[in-house]
Amino acid sequence: MLESAEIVQRFLAAKRQVHPEVVAWIREQSDPGLVDRILREAPEDAVVISSAMIPSIRPERDGVRFLADPHLEVIVGAPGSSDVISSIQDYVHYFRDRYTRLGGLVRSRVHSMPIEALVRTSRYRQQECTIIGMVVDGRTTSKGHRLVQLEDPTGVIQVLFNKNRPDFDQAERLVPDEVVGVRGKLADDGSLFYGEQVLRPDVPVGNAPFLSKEAGRAVLISDVHVGSDTFLPEAWDRFADWLGENDEIGYLLIAGDLVDGIGIYPGQEKELTISNIDEQYAEFGRMLRDLPSRLRIVVAPGNHDVVRGAEPQPALPERFAAHLPTNCTIVENPCLVSLQGVRVLMYHGRSIDDLIPLLPGTTYSRPGELMEEMLKRRHLAPSYGRRTPIAAARTDRLLIDPVPEVLHTGHVHIMGFCQYRGVIGINAGTWQSQTAFQKQMNINPTPARAVSLDLQTLAVEAFDFS
Ligand code: D5M
Ligand code: FE
Ligand code: ZN
């Protein structure tokens, strides 16, 4: 084992100072190559090597451990936590887990009964009760009422929502595979359940977000799309300068679509300035290295990135992560990170494409509303089997549990916000101007945006670098 004095000496020899915490940690590791690796990977402009610089000193393949950073913590979604999956068995487990956990949130508030027990005897007819189930599907009847099929582990039932009853608008917003409670009455012949009220898992009414006791500021962005001919380098440079001028900003969170990728859509090759995937990440890495080295940067993938599309998406593999500076923490999509105790749920946001056609009145131009719909359902991607591929693992990693302070999404390239029962939703926009495809789809992006978050107050401020 290296002695402390020797460790300090080796840093001094390299014209660096080292924090005592780091020295203590190095002593414990009994890893002779560690000092050299830290010296090699530490930010060039760092005079004092602090513990904050160590967590992302990536394990070389022999698996060096990290020193926990007191400020940034990956609670869920550290690299390697998404299982390898996809047997029938997992699909069954996946939906059971989704039902049990989301149903449990409703069950904790109301007394409910299994569908099978309800229809078996005539005892419960004409008596108000609550059932909890997963929406199989729904349709509007010829008279304009809403008929929804609801399933729990014991049975299936048709639930009819009368268009003239108060909660009809909520019934219209039931989407396939979400888990809800429905309060109502069984029909006399037991064939139907008359739904009166929709009870969603929801954020508790009294939800009180955690606030950091110390000052701190994070910046949230998304959809950088490096390598695309519509990526905006000058705007990015202005952003980089601004980060340099505002040294109270300690964190930068990036919610996916880091690069434009290769072969993501037909004809993409004609719209790329960098047509090699390694080169795209190398360029992205250079851009991050040019940012102030004090920043702790959290890097999550999106559907344009090089990892599998099925969510949860794994973190960037080492081959590509190796291009990123050591102050980057690579994570999965989704992931839950804590910044001084303020929990940010990062999710690229692909399910927004699925939710918009399912939810009347929603639009790409107001992504905040879709984040609110996710929070009410306590789920990031409520409907299975649409445009958002979901890897059906034994546990449903797309549940929103615990309730975070902040939900950070991207994907739609339009900045938007919500504030729902104490939770702040931030859709961060993009660094790419309108693509030919988006023009065709009539999607008007809000490029070159960054959103700042005050960790003491959760105050949000938007900046435009275009
Ligand atoms: O997604 C950027 C935006 O383009 C986002 O609003 C979704 C939309 N988009 C992407 N692909 C499609 C398809 N195939 N149909 C309709 N809309 C789409 P990005 O992930 O950056 O490509
Ligand atoms: Fe994107
Ligand atoms: Zn995307």
Describe this structure in words.
The structure is a single chain. With 466 residues, the chain is an alpha/beta fold. The protein folds into three domains: 4-70; 110-199, Nucleic acid-binding proteins (OB fold (Dihydrolipoamide Acetyltransferase, E2P)), CATH 2.40.50; 217-464, Purple Acid Phosphatase, chain A, domain 2. 24% of the residues lie in helices and 23% in strands. It contains twelve helices and 19 strands. It has a six-stranded mixed sheet with strand order 3-13-14-15-17-16, with helices on one face. Helix 8 (277-289) links the parallel strand 10 and strand 11. The radius of gyration is 25 Å and the shape is elongated. Residues 56-70 have low confidence and may be disordered. Bound molecules: 2'-deoxyadenosine-5'-monophosphate, fe (iii) ion and zinc ion (ZN). Zinc ion is lined by residues 257, 302-304, 348, 411.
Radius of gyration: 25 Å
In quaternary terms, these chains amount to single chain
Give the overall form: elongated
| Strand fraction | 15-25%
Average pLDDT over all residues: 92
- Computed structural class: alpha/beta
In the CATH scheme, the class of the largest domain would be Alpha Beta
